[in-house]
Amino acid sequence: MLSPALPESCDVLVVGAGPAGSACASKLAGAGLDVLLVDAQAFPRDKVCGDGLIPDAHAALRGLGVYDEVMALARHVAHVRCVAPRGGAVSVPGTLAVLPRRQLDDLLCRAERRAGARFEAPVRFEAPLLDGERVVGARLKAGGAAHEVRARWVVLATGAVPQALINAGLCERRTPSGVALRGYVKNAAMVGHIDQLELVWHPRLKGGYGWIFPAPDGVFNIGTGLTGSHVTGRDGRGSMQDVNLRRMFDAFCDVYAPARELMAGGTLVGELKGAPLRCSLLGARWSRPGMLVTGEAAGSTYAFSGEGIGKAMETGILAAEALRQGLDDDAGVRAHYDTALRALAPRFALYEKAAHVNERPWLADLVIWRARKSPRILRRMSGVLEETQNPGRLLSWRGIGKLMFE
C-alpha cells in the first residue's frame, strides 16, 4: 500500500535533496513538470562539509533565484588565506561566504517546494523499477514499508556514499576519492582574529590540507581533508577505514597555532564527523535509459580544494536542462547531459593535476612565496578561485618552473 504522502507516479523523481537534487528539482518544477524530491533524512539535517561558498556557488545561487536569501544568512568573507608549511601566507581576494549546510540545504529544499515540487523525507531509495533495461521509477522505503513510484525519469543526487549508485547499476568505483573530518567550534575570542577562509598545507598533512572557515554567529568550521592514493591506496583498493582522520586533525592542531587556540579555548558544537568525497567526475556512469546521476554522486567535487557545493548545483541544473529537452527522448536527454558534463570535465582534470600540491607541501611554500612578491601571480591565484584562470598555469610542473623566473 502506498503512503498517502507518496504519489503513485510523477514526471521526474529526484533522489537526494542536497544542492544538486534541490537545484534540479527547482528548475524542473519551475518549468511545469510534476516533480517528487525525496531524501533519506528529515530536514533540516547536518551535512559534513567545509561550508565555503566560492564564486561558482554564488553564480548557481543566482541562477536558482535564492542568492539574496542565502547571503542574508551567510558570513561574508573577502579573502582566502593560504598558509604554507614554513609559515608564509598570502591572502587571495575573492567573492566568498560561509553558511552551514544544515541551513543552506534546508533553504534550497524550501525553494524547490516554492517552485512547485513535492518533498518527502525520510524516504530511502532501494532500487530502480525497470521495463527491460529502462528505468521507469523506483522502489522506495518510507516508514518501514516499501513503496513503488513510477516516473518518466529518475535523477540520482545521493552524494558520495555509493550504495544508491550500486543499487542502480551505475557505480564504477566504490572507494572514495577523498575523505574529510569536520567540526564546528564556538569561540568568541577568535572572532575577528580568523576572518578569512584559511587553507593550510604542511608535511604532516601530506596528501591533503587543513582549513578554518569563519561561519555566522561566532562559530568556526574546522577540518582536514585527504585525497588521492592516501585514501584509495596505490592499488586503488583502499577504504575510508584505512585513514586515521582524527590523527590528521590532531596533527593540524599541533602544527597550526590558530587551530590549536581555536580548539583549546572554544566549545565543540556537536561531534567531529567524517565523510567521503567523490571527485573529478569519476567513479560513476552518468546515465542509463530513464536515469541521470548528478552532484557528488557523479563526482562533482574538485580534487585540489575539496570544494563541491557550486559544481553540485551546476550539474543539477545541467540535468534539469537536459530533461527539459523532452522527457520522451531517451537518447536526446542522455546525449545532452553527457555533452554538458564532458564540457566541464577538462576543468576538473586541471584541478586533479593541481592536487599534486597536496602531495608535495613544499610547492605551497614556493607558490605562496612568489605570490607575496608578485601582484601578477596573486591575481592569477584569485583568477583560479574565480575560475577565470587555469590552475595549471600556476600548479603544473611547467607553471611552477615559470614561477622561478617571473
Describe the structure.
This protein is of the alpha/beta class and 406 residues long. The chain folds into 3 domains: 9-48 and 103-174 and 280-354, 3-Layer(bba) Sandwich (FAD/NAD(P)-binding domain), CATH 3.50.50.60; 76-98 and 185-277, no CATH class; 359-403, no CATH class. The chain contains 15 helices and 16 strands. The chain has helices at residues 19-30, 55-63, 67-73, 101-114, 163-168, 229-232, 245-255, 257-265, 309-323, 330-354, 356-359, 362-373, 375-386, 392-395, 397-403; strands at residues 9-15, 35-38, 52-53, 75-83, 89-98, 118-120, 124-131, 134-142, 145-156, 178-186, 197-200, 208-214, 219-227, 267-277, 287-288, 291-293. The protein is globular, with a radius of gyration of 21 Å.
Layout of strands and helices, then pairs:
Blueprint (H helix, E strand, L loop, with lengths): L8 E7 L3 H12 L4 E4 L13 E2 L1 H9 L3 H7 L1 E9 L5 E10 L2 H14 L3 E3 L3 E8 L2 E9 L2 E12 L6 H6 L9 E9 L10 E4 L7 E7 L4 E9 L1 H4 L12 H11 L1 H9 L1 E11 L9 E2 L2 E3 L15 H15 L6 H25 L1 H4 L2 H12 L1 H12 L5 H4 L1 H7 L3
Parallel strand pairs: 1-2, 1-9, 2-6, 4-11, 9-16
Antiparallel strand pairs: 3-5, 4-5, 7-8, 8-9, 10-13, 10-14, 11-12, 12-13, 15-16
Helix pairs in contact: 1-4, 1-9, 2-9, 7-8, 9-10, 12-13
